[in-house]
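Comment on the following before class.
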Amino acid sequence: MTVQLSNLEHLPNYQITERLDVVYGSTVRSKHVGKDLFAGLKNIVGGELTAYTELLEESRQEAIDRMIIKAEALGADAIVGLRFSTSSIAQGASELFVYGTAVKIVPIQQQPVHYQPPHNPPNQPPSQPVNPAQTPADDLPRFNPFG
């Protein structure tokens, strides 16, 4: 099973059974001199700096891959509460940092919803129709990060 990722504090249609640990991944990248020169020229005419877009995408993927390796080492099924952070390390070099909580999960058994029409006693107005697709928010499983 691959590790599932969620920026939510829970994973829809799954119940968290065990909270393992905080996991993270990071990468530090610097700008390529040639790409930086081209980006400076691009600033004059405007437009997307595709070289930097590609650099950031590669950085995000590398940081996520490193985080997943740590989660797999713990035996995690998922990582919830996924967040990204960046910081400047040195002139022209930045760190991209990703972190979340490694957890074990199990699928939630979906109960079939049976619609029963409301029973209206004689001489009373009909009640409001019940929408079986609506689920009160209190019935959804939630992950409590504090225990």
